[in-house]
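Sequence design from tokenized structure. All designs in this work follow the same two-part layout: the structure record, then the generated sequence. An example of the structure record is given first.
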């Protein structure tokens, strides 16, 4: 039979030792100051020695307690990792990623073979979303550049991945037209793209009719069909620019905030999701 201290007392000791304060430990554990103090006293009475000394307005561990804390912290770290792995096993392997259909089709899916060679034990499950759909739909992480529809709290939680550079693109024949004769191809849910372009460049581009489409890949197809000028992140049209089927006569401009990842609210991001984001950040940076 194991002789171990009560878990509640052990948690109280670990939290106080780590934070140096009964008040901060009580806040972290969602307990009262008195309850945490009682747990410390029970633990001290059980072992027969003092665990903490007053140090100004805080507490300092006694030498014996410091040794015990080192062992406790190591045990808690191992337990935390094991519990996280247990939860990952229950949820099933892989990372659920929500992103735009165009980003998935034109950049992410073609790159996944590289990711799987590096991480053969992780599988990526994709859900398509748009800038208007602000729900995470159970995904572990959502990837987007336009978060203007998200709450301020979500925007603060978002993790920067890479800069985004947008170019106003069209077929070569359209590029030779005067701006007032060029139709503007707009994304129905990310209208801030053209606003940012004009604010940053001041260039008179596509001043004619406005053609609106609900997805970026439709905007690209419209530009390829010669319907007008579309504003697209350059990674998504790298092939068309290299082949010359689309041209960017006005250059490109870096947009504010960049591409970001929004982890699911209310739950800790697991190791597989962290590995995916680390790879994604590196792959996006290697343009």
């Amino acid at each position: 039979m194991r002789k171990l201290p009560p878990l509640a007392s052990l948690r109280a000791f670990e939290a106080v030792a780590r934070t140096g304060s009964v008040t901060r430990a009580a806040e972290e554990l969602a307990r009262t100051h008195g309850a945490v103090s009682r747990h410390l006293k029970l633990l001290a009475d059980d072992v027969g020695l003092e665990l903490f000394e007053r140090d100004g307005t805080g507490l300092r561990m006694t030498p014996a307690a410091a040794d015990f804390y080192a062992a406790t912290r190591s045990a808690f770290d191992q337990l935390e990792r094991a519990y996280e792995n247990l939860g990952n096993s229950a949820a099933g392997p892989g990372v659920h990623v929500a992103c735009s259909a165009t980003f998935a089709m034109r950049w992410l899916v073609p790159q996944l073979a590289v990711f799987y060679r590096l991480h053969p034990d992780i599988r990526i499950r994709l859900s398509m979303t748009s800038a208007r759909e602000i729900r995470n739909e159970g995904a572990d992480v959502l990837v987007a550049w336009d978060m203007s529809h998200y709450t301020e709290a979500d925007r603060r939680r978002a993790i920067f991945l890479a800069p985004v550079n947008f170019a106003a693109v069209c077929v070569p024949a359209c590029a030779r037209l005067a701006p007032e004769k060029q139709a503007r191809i707009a994304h129905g849910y990310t209208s801030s793209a053209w606003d940012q372009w004009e604010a940053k460049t001041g260039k008179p581009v596509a001043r004619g009719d406005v053609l609106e489409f609900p997805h970026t890949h439709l905007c690209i197809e419209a530009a390829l069909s010669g319907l007008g000028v579309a504003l697209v992140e350059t990674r998504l049209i790298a092939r068309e620019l290299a082949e010359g089927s689309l041209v960017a006569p006005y250059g490109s401009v870096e947009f504010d905030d960049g591409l970001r990842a929004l982890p699911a609210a209310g739950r800790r991001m697991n190791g597989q999701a962290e590995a995916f984001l680390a790879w994604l950040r590196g792959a996006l940076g290697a343009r």
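The chain has three domains: 7-87, 93-160+258-285, 164-255. We note this feature because it recurs in several other targets discussed in the main text.
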